[in-house]
Amino acid sequence: MVNNAEKLQKERYDLFDKLYTGQIPKRVPLGHYVYNPFAIQFAGYDLFESQWDTAGLLSKACDEFCSQVFTDIVPVASTIIPYPYQVLASRSYKMSKTGFMQHPELAGMEAEDYEAFIKSPFDVILEKILPTLFPALDTDPVTRSVNMAKGIVAYREEQTVMKKIKSDAIAKYGYLKPPANSDSGGVKCPFDFLADFIRGFGNILTDVRRYPEQVLEACDAVLQLLIKKATPSKPHYLGTTSITTHMPGFMRTKDFEKFYYPTFKKMVETFVESGMGVRIFCEGDWMRYLDHLRDLPENVRLRFEYGDPKIIKEKLGDKQIISGLYPISILQIGTKEEVIEKAKEYVDILAPGGRYYFEFDKSAITCQGNMRENIIALSDYLRDNATY
Hints:
- This is Uroporphyrinogen decarboxylase (URO-D).
- One of its GO terms (biological process) is porphyrin-containing compound biosynthetic process.
- With 388 residues, the chain is α/β, with parallel strands linked by helices.
- It is built from 17 helices and nine strands.
- The relative contact order is 0.13.
- The chain is globular and about 60 Å long.
- The mean pLDDT is 92.
- It has a domain at 31-90 and 134-177.
């Protein structure tokens, strides 16, 4: 006898199978989710304590959220877990006084290190950048090895817990279950990788003017390393490799076309050619770049933070899969009626003809204001009314 969770899972498999292959599912799949801190606040647990008790309080918070908010995917995603980063005395990720993990602006190497990085990025990452970002590795070889081992063990322990939370939710609530080993998590494209971890936001924008050839060569040098990191052992279009973009909204179009887009496109094409499902979070305003996005392989999943939904649908809706745009801010300050009316507005524009699933415009990290009641009401409405 098929239980309800198994029935739902089969229905959801069919929804996403059709969505990702250019067909029209029987309804709009719901792909919205929140991060750990949101689920913790939603459930009423202490933010600090829960992030250090992942197997206990965090697990309970995630189950509480799953039991009340309808989605078609596991609706709680992991943010940066503090324990492994504390072990390594991390400078790149720190917990703020409010309990949220933050990524401060910093540089892992100086401009004069470009030549060495271009020659062997992996060696420079190991020998210079990691010790800069994680001071526990900036010590003698024996201590460094011990600290690295501690960090790896801590990371694997927490990842094991998060995987169990996810697998338990899939079994209990019948969420979409991608084929085994087809998800690879997230990756940065080369230019964003340089901006986020290697040179820093401000420095990289200076580098494109002062050291343009070195920036181009550095992007080329690190491309294959990032592709290897993000390629799952068994690629499948129902799995996901997520590319989060940071810099395009702050770049001149000509700089985007010269420094960002070439290796970005190569990365996406390589992933698609391997059979992977590719999801791109277009942070900021990508309206200038819609023609570039159209030039990517068919059925790439594009989540937009900002933009005109009518123009995006017109330019991309017959080739790429669109999500995002729904303003998460309305969940905090709006009434239930306003939240639902806004959802209807976006569904009416983006759903006709297919290649659309529902998702928020931004990451849902904090559960404040009216968000608890509104996200429940929104999800129930979409479940019953979001069709093509």
